[in-house]
Design goal:
The protein is an alpha/beta fold. The chain contains 10 helices and 18 strands. It has a 7-stranded mixed sheet with strand order 14-13-15-16-12-17-18, with helices on both faces. A hairpin with a 5-residue loop joins strand 7 and strand 8. Helix 8 packs across helix 9, helix 8 packs across helix 10 and helix 9 packs parallel to helix 10. It is elongated, with a radius of gyration of 25 Å. GO terms for molecular function: adenosylcobinamide kinase activity; ATP binding; cobinamide phosphate guanylyltransferase activity; GTP binding.
């Protein structure tokens, strides 16, 4: 199948009309995106949007051969003039299948929100899935049976990363599936920041008018680079935990490793923990432990460790590193051994790992010797772990700066 994306933007397009935000202001010209609309083999049109005929002409395509127009949005939207010769738009009921005279089969996919998704199988057997903005497939559960794998998936990766996680959990999306983000809005700055976020999810963006050969995905220039090991650094309340969680929210079964414990009686800490839990996807599992070495040695789903700063505090407590006499009498050596073991575990990890740590070296010099010792040891730990990671990110004021990778 040959697929042409006549538009890749949100229903209102990008930039939004009369929107003064920074992203819209930075999205004119080549960065502009029309509302998402997909032309399949020149015969099937998914979503008729204003200017679709002109968009097709700009892409070197024609709507003259279209035999079926299907709508996906929760509602039919504002009246759109149907170009002469184009069939009237329609919608396939959930669970029903439509056979097009050209040999394409279209199955309507039920969603957990309004709208209709479409699974299209071409005459050659290749399969694509197109989901409307804000939509995620309903009824997809692990263990519900082997799902057919799609060659191309077009969905709202930024707005519904959990939809991608569901598809991965049942095997409908695999390593060879081309995942392309559509319905892009002003939630993420365009350019490098958008590409970085999508790459972390194993997805990519393309410009309006791009044609994709379904099943041809896999060239070295198109495969998103999903790092196996990532270190996310940042100061207090910088957004580092949000950044780390965002990197894994499109993957199923993530193991969230909390190294801080419960701290019974500390109401402020309890509130922090509750905020973190509420923010995480319901499919994630939480483990409260500082025993990271055996966990990193296991095979399994992605792991998010939050954070190394608290792991170091626990390790220094265990070896008596706060006492000068004990530090000189062997606890320094014991701490070095623990750090070396952790770094070796990060190096040999075979599962996807995202680690969070505080960056404290740029702040005020601690007034106590123990405080300075902790600052120095955390700096050494961060540097050692960073050396083993494919990607290192520093978060400042909620903005992720890529230091490596």
């Amino acid at each position: 199948m040959d697929v042409t994306l006549l538009g890749t933007g949100a229903p209102a397009g990008l930039p939004r009309p009369d929107c003064p935000c920074a992203v819209c202001a930075a999205s004119p010209g080549e960065r502009a995106r029309a509302a998402a609309s997909v032309l399949v083999d020149g015969v099937l049109l998914l979503d008729l949007t204003p200017g679709a005929a002109f968009a097709a002409a700009r892409a070197g395509r024609s709507l003259g051969g279209v035999r079926q127009v299907l709508l996906s949005h929760p509602h039919d939207g504002p009246a759109v003039e149907v170009p002469a010769g184009l069939p009237q738009p329609g919608r396939v009921p959930d669970g029903r299948e439509l056979a097009v005279l050209t040999g394409h089969r279209v199955r309507a996919v039920a969603l957990d929100a309004g709208g209709t998704g479409y699974a299209v199988t071409g005459p050659d057997g290749q399969r694509l899935l197109y989901l409307p903005p804000g939509g995620s497939p309903a009824g997809l559960e692990e263990g519900s049976g082997a799902a057919e794998r799609y060659d191309l998936v077009l969905l709202d990766v930024v707005g519904r990363p959990d939809a991608l996680a569901k598809l991965r959990a049942v095997g409908a999306v695999g390593p060879a599936t081309d995942v392309v983000a559509v319905h892009l809005d002003h939630d993420v700055p365009p350019g490098a920041e958008l590409r970085r976020r999508l790459a972390a999810a194993g997805a990519r963006e393309v410009a309006d008018g791009t044609s994709l050969a379904v099943g041809a995905y896999g060239s070295a220039t198109s495969v998103p680079d999903v790092p196996r090991r990532t270190l996310v650094l940042g100061g207090a309340r910088s957004g580092k935990s949000v950044e780390a969680e965002r990197r894994l929210e499109s993957f199923p079964g993530v193991v969230y490793v909390a190294t801080g414990g419960s701290r019974g009686g500390d109401t402020e800490w309890t509130a922090r923990v509750a905020a973190h839990r509420e923010r995480r996807p319901g499919s994630w599992r939480t483990r409260e432990t500082c025993d990271l070495v055996p966990l990193l040695a296991e095979d399994g789903p992605p792991v998010l460790v939050d954070c190394l700063s608290l792991w170091l505090t626990d390790a220094m407590d265990a070896v008596g590193a706060w006492d000068d006499a004990l530090w000189a009498d062997g606890s320094e050596r014991e701490l070095r051994e623990r750090v070396a073991a952790l770094v070796a575990a990060v190096r040999s990890a075979r599962r996807t790992v995202v680690l969070v740590s505080n960056e404290v070296g740029s702040g005020i010099v601690p007034a106590t010797a123990s405080g300075r010792r902790y600052r120095d040891e955390l700096g050494r730990l961060n540097a050692a772990v960073a050396a083993e990671c494919e990607q290192v990110v520093l978060v400042v004021a909620g903005q992720a700066l890529v230091l490596r990778g």
